[in-house]
Design a protein that fits this description.
Elements (H helix, E strand, L loop, with lengths): L16 E5 L6 E5 L1 E9 L4 H15 L2 E7 L14 E9 L12 E4 L2 H7 L8 E5 L5 H6 L16 E5 L1 H8 L7 H5 L2 H12 L5 H10 L4 H20 L5 E5 L11 E5 H16 L3 E5 L6 H7 L7 E5 L3 H13 L3 E6 L1 H17 L3 E7 L16 H6 L9 E2 L6 H16 L2 E7 H5 L1 E5 L19 E2 L5 E2 L42 H16 L8 E2 L6 E6 L3 H13 L5 E5 L1 E3 L5 H5 L4 E6 L4 H10 L4 E4 L8 H13 L1
Parallel strand pairs: 2-9, 3-6, 6-7, 7-8, 11-12, 11-13, 13-14, 14-16, 15-16, 21-22, 21-24, 24-25
Antiparallel strand pairs: 1-2, 3-5, 4-5, 10-17, 15-23, 18-19, 20-22
Length: about 650
């Protein structure tokens, strides 16, 4: 969530323990203010599904939450290997939180590879639940364990819970007509049941989900439900788990409203549908599947009832070409991709700049260059979005800051595209796309009016009195040209990538006209109305930390930690990266030091230095993972003290 209320528990990854109680003489129940759980196993062990179900029940319970799915790029990486480990981290709390957490309090490791890949992130004293059935000699050797870590004392600093998850699952399902291999697949549900007992999560939603997911295979549905219940019952009866935990709903963290858990890609898809409804335009998506953007295509394909038309093209170029054609035809046109796809789409984005048509280009950034790291996050497409076209082809850029904020960012990108008749780049990333948090469903009267007026007749009078339609005659306030629907009588005009004559739109090679058109298109983008940047500076700090996009959560958590420790630091976060807010230069010059954390090698810092001549200090990370709050807090403290 995005509340600025400080919480003392942001200082540490250790949960604060409250009262203990024993209901009916049963096991201890301890009250915590927050917990960070990580499920880890092979990419075929269902860790993403397990984490997603735990998250859904946590959201329905009313906790604030933030998630970090992390999985290999391979469809099925080699079983039992370090590259094949898939994990899902969930941070949930009884107060406002901002990140998936730095260090897990609980690790569920389904095999030795999962343990070895994640043990370095755990603080001493953390709980480790391991599936002992997978700790065979061969499995240990495969990941480089010379001895069994469950036996050699190397885990003595942790609260280790060895559980034969596979054996217990198979035993629980012996009454079902399943092979051993089929029964073993339900071990993730056994683990989910155990964790649901440990943290008093609701169970009804998961059982309903399983019945729906396996509706065509009721035996499989019942087997998974049986494994889930067996895991719950194991926690209730085993002596190894003497304590369970409660994390109360985050009643004070949320404004009044109706909430649901939502991922960034889902929020973005809903934002696009909402924008089309508010604009009273059909929505057209021309796209080619690419990780991590494909979920948007999948989701929008479900909403034909809202006038959404999705087209899965044969490649990236065809996808954006179809979308631009739809924009010419009067649709709210969108193309979705990641960085490699933006490279392929660049010529058509330039064509959209020349044609001055509204087009949303959604880039869910991932690690690069080239194919890079398909399932890992990065912020390294900013300069590509700003300059990655031939010629002077300025494009507005909007970046959401949290998964839920992707909804509002989609509406804002649509507003700019429709109002100013221009393609707009929306820069999300893999961290936001796959992560999730609670989202307050907005009321209809909170949504912007995005309706547009199409050209309907002549708009210019020649010297001889003839009334004609000039396709490049501009609105004096926005510099937007008219939007003429093909087939409207009298509004025929030339289209294509060759330079247009001002006003008439005829082909022009005139040097002075080209200079004028280039400057006019730049002036249109420069003149886009965007809100001033807001600065959070309660103590009159001398150091400002400036961020953009998904760094918002880690930066804000780090700032909270520093302020709780008595440090003075200011924070500002950019949504609009082209054009920048008009007050940005004045804000930057009001501080002795500006620090810019980015998941790249300093792209925003480069732009800031060039435009405002401010000696912005970069703090960079390009390891495919989001910043940790403690890591940023340390770096910012060093900047303050320097």
């Amino acid at each position: 969530m995005t509340s600025q209320v400080s919480s003392p528990t942001e200082q540490t990854d250790e949960p604060v323990v409250g009262e203990q109680r024993k209901p009916g003489g049963a096991k201890d129940v301890r009250r915590l203010d927050r917990v960070i759980i990580r499920f880890a196993g092979d990419s075929g062990d269902g860790m993403q599904l397990t984490g997603d179900r735990f998250t859904s029940e946590t959201a329905s319970f009313g906790n604030d939450l933030s998630t970090l799915p992390n999985f290999p790029a391979e469809i099925r990486a080699p079983a039992g290997t370090l590259p094949g480990v898939s994990s899902f981290q969930l941070h949930f709390a009884d107060h406002d939180i901002l990140t998936p957490g730095d260090a897990p309090n609980v690790l569920v490791a389904m095999n030795p590879a999962a343990l070895k890949a994640n043990i370095g992130d755990l603080p001493r004293g953390a709980e480790i639940i391991v599936n002992t059935d997978e700790f065979t000699k061969r499995a240990l050797q495969k990941v480089g364990y010379a001895a069994d870590p469950l036996q050699d004392g190397s885990l003595d600093g942790y609260n280790l819970h060895p559980v034969p998850l596979t054996t217990l699952t198979v035993e629980a399902l012996k009454e079902f007509d399943l092979s051993r291999k089929e029964a073993e697949r339900s071990k993730n549900m056994f683990a989910l049941g155990l964790l649901s007992w440990m943290y008093h999560r609701p169970t009804e939603g998961t059982e309903k989900f399983l019945k729906s997911k396996f509706a065509k295979k009721p035996d499989i549905a019942e087997a998974n439900i049986a494994a889930f219940r067996a895991g719950w019952n194991f926690g209730e009866t085993t002596e190894d788990f003497a304590v369970s935990y409660e994390v109360a709903p985050a009643a004070k963290a949320f404004p009044v409203g109706t909430y649901r858990n939502i991922s960034g890609n889902l929020a973005l898809a809903y934002g696009l549908v909402t924008a089309s409804q508010q604009a009273d335009l059909p929505l057209f998506l021309g796209s080619y599947p690419i990780t991590p953007a494909s979920d948007i295509l999948h989701e929008l394909s479900k909403h034909k009832n809202f006038g959404v038309r999705t087209f899965q093209a044969e490649d990236e170029i065809a996808g954006i070409g179809a979308a631009l054609g739809a924009a010419f035809g009067g649709s709210l046109a969108v193309t979705t991709t990641s960085g490699p796809g933006v490279a392929l789409k660049s010529e058509t984005i330039g064509l959209a700049v020349s044609l001055e048509l509204p087009l949303l280009v959604v880039d869910i950034q991932r690690g690069g260059p080239s194919t890079g790291l398909p399932t890992k996050t990065e912020q390294a497409d900013l300069l590509q979005a700003m300059f990655g076209r031939n010629g002077e082809a300025p494009v507005p850029i909007v970046a959401p800051r949290t998964p839920a904020d992707c909804f509002d960012a989609a509406l804002e990108a649509a507003r700019i595209a429709l109002t100013y008749r221009t393609p707009v780049m929306l820069l999300s990333d893999g961290y936001l796309a796959n992560g999730s948090e609670p989202w307050r469903i907005p009321d209809l009267d909170e949504l912007p009016d995005l309706r547009v007026r199409f050209a309907s007749g002549p708009n210019h009078t020649l010297e001889d009195g003839t009334e004609v339609f000039w396709p490049y005659k501009r609105d004096p306030h926005t510099l937007a040209r008219p939007w003429a629907i093909p087939g409207t009588p009298g509004l025929e005009h030339r289209i294509g990538g060759i330079e247009k004559q001002d006003g008439t739109g005829n082909i022009s090679y005139d040097p002075a006209n080209h200079d004028f058109m280039v400057r006019t298109r730049q002036a249109k983008v420069d003149g886009i109305e965007v809100p001033d940047i807001e600065v959070d500076d309660p103590h009159g700090a001398k150091t400002l930390v400036l961020g953009w996009g998904s760094t918002y959560g880690p930066i804000t958590a780090a700032v909270r930690r520093l302020r709780t420790a008595g440090e003075s630091i200011a924070q500002a976060h950019l949504r609009h990266l082209n054009p920048f807010p008009r007050n940005l230069g004045q804000v930057l010059k009001g501080y002795d030091k500006v620090v810019v954390p980015e998941m790249n090698l300093g792209q925003l810092a480069t732009l800031i230095r060039a435009k405002y001549l401010v000696d912005a200090h970069s703090y960079n990370q390009v390891n495919g993972m989001p910043f940790k709050a403690e890591q940023l807090a340390t770096a910012l403290k060093e900047a303050i003290d320097d």
